[in-house]
């Protein structure tokens, strides 16, 4: 049985890293850094959006900026069907 992450990669998910800068609740002049990483779909990023919605609803520190990096780990060119098989003695 293939792992959940591998099945997600075959479905088009890729590794996504978000660098989130947010303001400290007690000291709004200070920016703090948070790194989020998960498998997500490019370009909509539903998992990241869900996390940022949670952040906005439940956490006190307002988000200043988000920088996203995404890499599809399994690309279509890497997966292909084999049409023939040859055996050499």
Secondary-structure blueprint:
Blueprint: H1 4-10, E1 14-23, E2 31-40, H2 46-58, E3 63-71
Antiparallel strand pairs: 1-2, 1-3
Report what the structure shows.
This protein has 89 residues and is of the alpha+beta class. The protein has one domain. Helices cover 22% and strands 33% of the residues. It is built from 2 helices and 3 strands. The protein has a 3-stranded antiparallel beta sheet. The chain is elongated and about 70 Å long. The model has no long low-confidence stretch (mean pLDDT 86).
Overall structural class, as computed from helix and strand content, comes to alpha+beta
What value does the Rg take, in angstroms?
A: 19 Å
Give a quick account of the main beta sheet: strands, pairing sense, barrel closure.
Answer: 3 strands, antiparallel
Strand content: 25-35%
What does the average pLDDT come to? 86
Tally of DSSP helical segments: 2
Instruction: Report the span from N to C terminus.
Output: 32 Å
Shape: elongated
| H/E element order | HEEHE
- By DSSP, the count of extended strands is 3
Total discrete domains: 1
Approximate helicity band:
10-25%
The parts where pLDDT drops under 50 for at least 5 residues are none
Order of neighbouring strands in the sheet with most strands: 2-1-3
């Amino acid at each position: 049985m293939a792992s959940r992450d591998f099945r997600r990669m075959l479905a088009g998910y890729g590794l996504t890293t978000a660098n989130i800068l947010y303001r400290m609740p007690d000291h709004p002049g200070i920016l703090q850094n948070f790194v989020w990483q998960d498998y997500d779909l490019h370009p909509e990023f539903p998992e990241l959006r869900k996390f940022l919605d949670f952040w906005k609803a439940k956490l006190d520190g307002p988000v200043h900026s988000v920088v996203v990096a995404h890499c599809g780990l399994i690309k279509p060119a890497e997966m292909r069907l084999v049409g023939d098989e040859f055996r050499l003695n």
